[in-house]
Amino acid sequence: MNEMREVEVTVIGAGQAGLAAAYHLRRTGFEPERDFVVLDHSPGPGGAWQFRWPSLTYGRVHGMHALPGRELTGADPARPSSEVIAEYFTDYERAFDLRVRRPVDVTAVREGANGRLLVESSDGTWATKALINATGTWDRPFWPRYPGQESFRGRQFHTARYPGPQAFAGLRVVVVGGGASGTQHLLELAPYAAATTWVTRRPPVFREGPFDEDAGRSAVALVEERVRQGLPPKSVVSVTGLPLNDAIRQGLADGVLDRLPMFDRITPDGVEWKDGRRVSADVILWATGFRPAVDHLAPLRLREPGGGIRLEGTRAVVDPRVHLVGYGPSASTIGANRAGRAAVRDIRRLLAEPAGMPAAA
Q1: Nearest CA to 311 among 333, 329, 292, 288?
Q2: How far from 169 is each of 164, 189, 212, 286, CA to CA, in Å?
């Protein structure tokens, strides 16, 4: 499509961060489809949650924070989180009339005329005065590369396509990754698998005691400092450690969470280390995380020499028209909410400087 339309603000992505931003735009007087548009590439509401594996029930979700203005109440903890949160997001979009356009693939954002950015998409081109990028990480699973990887005769999965524990029945499984997903996968599939092996690059850090507000702020500050320096963001979880709950304690006691250092190469039948140790495997499950999905922003040259996009708050230092929410320190459900509000507040100031803007509701 070659159609060109003008809006004040374009929001890319309708996960937690994108919907929070859209809510605050709506609340402060911006009209959807007239003043702002929300573009989402997913087939339906729910952000990345709609793609989570069926065995991740709502009761097992860690730290799902409600969207601004509408609580998630009465959800059955035994239902898949993909269903619960997709329904919640659907209700949210309707309640606040956010008019999300989907499925829409954004291919590039580049400089346009008269100080506007051009958002090129499968739904045409949007000439926008400001951009809120809320594309998250789910579309960029990180697959490490190791010698011999292509020779492996078994199957390889990433967390992004984890099929559930039953798929591993009777198989020898190597799980790679020391984060929350890696430990969850191990504990879940161990009763089904013939054997499990856990490997991580660094020894896992288990956190004792409650994770209070001060600890949360300290963790976010560490991630925020990297972003401020223009380095690629690490996840908040990477600096908090793993909570030592009952399930983790049992996994340690049973030997399921007996961690080995990272292997050195992959063989047709498994993995091996330089010291000669070998483990046979039918499956390698890569619980190795994700990277920010920001390739469409490449024409704006926002990246710093360190490889990341340097931010002040949510605003890109290189281009104050561009805000990243759900990126780095705001890549959590509560952080995404706060980032959405902060981005809208900054954009209101930006738009008010030269030409005025919609009146506040």
Answers
A1: 329
A2: 10, 8, 38, 18
What is the Cα Rg of the chain in Å?
22
Question: In angstroms, rounded to a whole number, what is the distance separating the alpha carbons of residues 252 and 283?
Answer: 22
Cα separation of 194 and 40, whole Å? 41
What is the four-CA torsion angle of 210, 212, 217, 219, rounded to 10 degrees? 0
Q: What 3-state class would DSSP assign to 266? A: strand
The torsion defined by the Cα of 94, 99, 101 and 106, in degrees rounded to 10, comes to -120
Alpha helix positions (H), the chain: 16-27, 81-95, 180-189, 213-228, 237-240, 246-254, 333-355
pLDDT digits 0-9 by tens, 66-116: 899 999 888 888 999 999 999 999 999 999 999 999 999 999 999 999 999
How many residues belong to the chain?
Answer: 361
The pair phi, psi for residue 286, each rounded to 5°, is -90, 100
Average pLDDT over residues 223-230: 73
